[in-house]
Amino acid sequence: MPADSLDFLHAPGSLHPLDPFDAAHRPPGLRERKKLKTRVAIRRATHRLIAEQGYEATTVEQIAEAAEVSPSTVFRYFASKEDIVLSDEYAPAMADALRGRPAGEEPLESLRAVLTRTVVALLAHEPEETRRRARLMAEVPAVRARTTRTMAATSRALAGVLADRTGRGADDLQVRVLTAAVMGALGEAMVYWAERGQRDDLAALVHRSLDTLRGGPVL
What we know:
single chain, mainly alpha, Arc Repressor Mutant, subunit A, Tetracycline Repressor, domain 2, 2 domains, 10 helices
């Protein structure tokens, strides 16, 4: 792994589970830190319970007890159990990273750089949660459906940045199609990774997926 591929990560033990491009951001205030601490506690409790007893057997009431909060607090932070597993807290950081890519870089290559660095960061900071999330995407229909919504929201955020970078309109169809295809490729790479026992290099699978978007499948 290149030495500079991890220079955007928080140090181990950071409060935030992952903000791979946070180095240029100001530290959050006390209120934001408290909210973040609660979100992290809920997510960690959820993943621990799922690991112990399975996804379907894990209830919001159990999650609340394990996180030492009330069920209403869980729902104040997350709309559903699927949201806890798949909450996308990284879209703003990914959008900022996309803004920082070289101005003349091809859009697909800019998106490739952002996605692969995010995958590396997830595996470095949340290896077990990332693996469990991918398995649930592959195995649980409700999680797979929620994944589609989460990735669509991230796609819209990236499309707005890409439109600005390319001088196109905020609702440009080609920009929307490109970012949606890239996020779809990421999702399929993760499911493929999970279905094959997570033996492969996930970042390499993302690269392969994006290569398919560039030239079409080689059959």
